[in-house]
Each structure stands twice: as C-alpha cells, then as structure tokens.
Amino acid sequence: MWNEPSAGVAVAALDPESSARQPAPAVVVAVEPGSIGEELGFEPGDQLLSINGVRPRDLIDYRYLCVEEDLHLEVRDAAGDLHEVDLEKDADDGLGLEFSEALFDGLRQCNNACPFCFIDQQPPGRRSSLYLKDDDYRLSFLYGSYLTLTNLTDSDWQRIEQQRLSPLFVSVHATEPELRSRLLKNPRAGQLMDQLRWFAERELQIHAQVVVCPGMNDGEALERTLKDLAGFAGGEWPAVLSAAVVPVGLTRFRPAEDGLVPVSPADASAVIARVEPLQQHFQSRFGSRFAWLSDEWYLMAGLPLPPRANYEDLPQQENGVGSIRGFLEALDDASTRLPTRIEAPLHSSWVVGRLVDEALAPVTDRLNAVEGVTLSLYGLPSPYWGQDQVVTGLLTGQDLLQGLEGRDLGDQLLLPSVMLRQGEPVFLDDMTLAELERQLPVPIRIVHGAADIVAAVLGQTPESP
Ligand code: SF4
Predict the structure, then answer these.
(1) 133-166 b/e with 16+ CB inside 10 Å = b?
(2) Nearest residue (CA) to ligand 1, atom 8
(3) Atom 3 of ligand 1, residue of closest alpha carbon
(4) Which tens digit of pLDDT belongs to each residue from 200-235?
(5) Ligand 1 nearest atom to the CA of residue 119, by list position
C-alpha cells in the first residue's frame, strides 16, 4: 500500500502565484546519530525541499516517499545554498531526520462550533496558538487526535483511501444526523453514518469517542449512538474498533447561555447504568465490551473502578479509559516490596486532582507504614477552571499556589508530570515551574509515573523520564 505513487505535490505543479495551500519546505531540527541523514551531512536548519521531484505535504508523505530505494533529494542548507543528493538504500531504511512540524502545508482547522469546545472555554488573552482548533486527519493518523470528518474535501477522502490512513480517531458524539449537526453546529455533521459506511466498504478503521452532555446526547440518544456504532464493530475487519464515552468538561470561562449543564453524580450513575448493560451485550456479541466508560464516570458517581481485566487491552487509555485503574495497578506493583524503614526520615507531599485522591488513599496508607516515611496526599480543586472535582492533569500553577497555601509541605513536593504542558516546564495557566518554585517554600520534584512516585517517597534518586 505504501508504494502508491500519489504522495505530495509534484514540484513542477507548484505555482508561486497560487493562493491555494502549498507545502513549505520541511525544516530539519534533529538528525539521528548513525543514520543515513547524518552520513549525508544533514544538519539542523536544513530544509528538505523535495524527494524524487515531489514536495511532501506532511510527515505521512515524507515517510511514504522515503520507502523508495533510490532517492533524489533537493535540500537548501541554512546558508541558503541548494544541494541535490542521490542515494540508494533499503526500502525499510529511514533517513533519521526530525522536522520542526508534522504538517508542512499548515493545520486543518475545524469548521464546527460545538458549545462544549474546550478551546472556547479557556480564558481570553493567551497565546494565539492555544486557540487553534485542529481538526486534521493527518494528526489523527499520526498522533491519535480526534477529528470530526466535517472538513474533508474529496481529495482528502481519496488520500485516506490511497494511503490507507487508518485507524483514524473520530469524535462522534451522536449518530442521529440532526442531533450530531446540532451538537457540532454544522449541517455537514449529519453525514456521519454514510461516512462510517465509506470506511467499512474500504476496510478502513476508526476509534470513536462520545462526549456526553447531560440532557443533550445522554439517555436514549447515547444508547442509539453506541448501538449504531456497534453496527460497524463486527466481522473480520470491523470499521469501528472501539467507542469511548467521556463526560463533558465545563470551565468557568465558557460562554454564558451555552445550554450546557455540568455532569452531576446522578448523571454519572445514569450513564454507567445505561452503558454497562450494553457492554455485556457487546461482549457476548463481539467478544469485546466495545464501548468504554472513562474512569471519571466512576469517580464522579462515587463507585469503585472496574477491575483491570474489564479493560481488555486498554484501547482507549489515552481518553482516560482505565488510565487510573492502570496507574493504581502500577502503584500496587511498585509498592508491593517496600522496605520496612528508610535510613533518613523524609516527609513528602503529593498533589493530585480532587477527583482522584480517594482512589489513592490505600497506596498512601501503605507508603506511610514504612518507618521514616511521611506522605501527605493533597487532592486539590481547580478554582482556576472553576471545577471542584478535577483530574490531576488540569491543575494549574495558580491552583497549586492557592490549594497549598498554609499547608505543611514537608521536605519535598511531588508534582505529577501530567500537570505540565507536554515537554515544557509550564502549567496550563502559563505559570512556569520556576515561578512556582520561587513562590513555594519547598523543593519540587516532578514525578513521571507510579514507580517514580514510590522511589521519590522512599528518598531514592529520580528515574529518567
Ligand atoms: S470539533 Fe473540536 S475543536 Fe471544533 S468546535 Fe468542536 S470541540 Fe472545538
């Protein structure tokens, strides 16, 4: 499949006068040591202009074009000089280049106006990139981000088919056409069932998600949605691989009169009561629960999380399905063989979102039973977002300052890395880790998972992330 000859834009077809979207050169930011790219002399700052006369539109095209054994590369170096490089390699060999962007022709933005959009629920006046609403099938294929399928052109559909861009991750929310159009505020959203048939006919696959807004797409509508999706879940090559059901998240910055209400404990119980029997039904029909409730539903309803075995191979873990159960299991593993005492007594404080602290109490007790260990667990709300029952990853720097004021933080403060923007020492409210450190009277240790937390509490050296 990867030898279809349609990746990228032929250099001859590039029209400098055209206002249509044209790919920019791919800018190299890193070269893997020992790779073909290093051997060829690539350096950060070089621009890859074309491969075999074709300019890649994105990383997918790049990988697709690099499958050829004979490559002719056109490269502009940081000084602006042009180079042409011919090479022969095995089909499996990559060039070992990393680029500044995954998309060389820009991000596809969304054309919907969902009232529950998290981007619209952020405070005003922040970096413009934080308000970008991506709805790009390339990012869905590359990184598993969710898209709605409402902004695809005919050539996008052709490309998905030709390059076999599967699985994609689709925000469904509802299958009933009128309801989905209303939820996404886009008449094109009503075409979803036809689109699912399109995937099925071509043996392409998706994972689905449903963001449940109480009073809008819960109850009967949710049941219909999951049953409609399950209609594509059978057979040798199911078009719909899984469906995650997640609660809507509302912040205090959302527009007034958006018609949304927060999920209450009663709503959470009702959703669980609606979906669990369907899971049983799907289990007997397909041998899989197929529809997955995120952990938040159980925590909000005050019910125990299902056992780990219920999550099968965690197909929707990125969506919060089974992630807390998985974390608890990892904590159990990491804390089964604890020492009876530690040499130097150590008092640690550990911050998590208020929604999850109760679930962590047993492991905290186990760690506190080690002589010399004092562990204080703080489950904080988020005044910043206006949410009391919040997951750990949404806590901001301001929430930490406010929630920890006047508390005994001991010798070190453990902060889970999920609070930081990916790869950056910055919280969601733009406060930097350095700023927080300046304002708190205790050293901060960022912890990267269960084993790292246990090691920190026992006073062992940090693991590499
Ligand atoms: S599709 Fe996603 S990004 Fe677009 S408005 Fe809806 S929630 Fe926001």
Answers:
(1) bbbbbbbbbbeebbbbbbbbeeebeebbbebebb
(2) 117
(3) 133
(4) 999 999 999 999 999 999 999 999 999 999 999 988
(5) 8
